[in-house]
Amino acid sequence: MSLKADKKPSRITRESFDEVVEVKVGPKATVFQIHKGLLCKAAPYFKVAFEGQFKEAEEQVLECNDEDVTMFKHFQYWLYTNNIIDESETVKEMTWQSIVSLYIFAEVRDIPDLQNAAMDIMINKVSLEHRIPAREFHQIYEQTDENSPLRRIAIDWLAHLGRLVPAEWLVEFDKDTFPKEALVDLVFAQYELRVGTRALIKDFGALRSDYHIKPPGAAV
């Protein structure tokens, strides 16, 4: 099973390695030096910041004070390699908080390739550990909208895996682990399973493309 994101060499060209800009991440303003061409090609957000009419374009410095440094290290590595984790790290070693934060970072800044790569890592991690990111449900529901694939797969994990494995997998959590909106979504998902309008998913890896962001014009 591949734990790497698919290669997307077309994003990286000779022109990508032009001037270097600074991104200051986290409350301590940890400095990342990154080629501006890579950032601007990855997302319109960075292109507007560094080439628009804002102070970031003049100073060539962007502040991301609310972002996690560890998450951003994975983003930087992905920018240059198209992989989220390097060869010295495993999926198990990458924390759920980092993966979920990386997905949300990509969703907010409209970086679909990174969203899909992060989704693949999450699916692989669930398959390896037989656990879901229950403690991150509040973050997921607070920082995504109702149409987010991240919400959808989180509820599908909760509804479908709960029917496939013993109930003890949830014993360490209590009712406050899950936001009320998630519990409502779970009720609807379980109802659809019960009445047969939704098929039970036994292998999320085989259906990972259902949770990917599709290119414009792609068949649904």
Structure, explained:
The protein is mainly alpha-helical and 220 residues long. It contains nine helices and three strands; from the N terminus they run ββαααβαααααα. The radius of gyration is 19 Å and the shape is elongated. It has a single domain, classed as 2-Layer Sandwich (Potassium Channel Kv1.1, Chain A). The longest helix is centred in the middle third of the chain and has 18 residues. Strand 1 and strand 2 form a beta hairpin. Helix 4 packs across helix 5, helix 5 packs antiparallel against helix 6 and helix 8 packs across helix 9. The chain has a three-stranded mixed β-sheet with strand order 2-1-3. It comes from Stereocaulon virgatum. InterPro entries: BTB/POZ_dom, SKP1/BTB/POZ_sf. It holds the Pfam family BTB.
Give the ordered list of helices and strands.
Answer: EEHHHEHHHHHH
Q: Ends: how far apart?
A: 25 Å
Strands ordered across the widest β-sheet: 2-1-3
CATH class wording? Alpha Beta
What class do helices, strands and sheet pairing give?
mainly alpha
Quaternary structure annotation: single chain
Beta strand count: 3
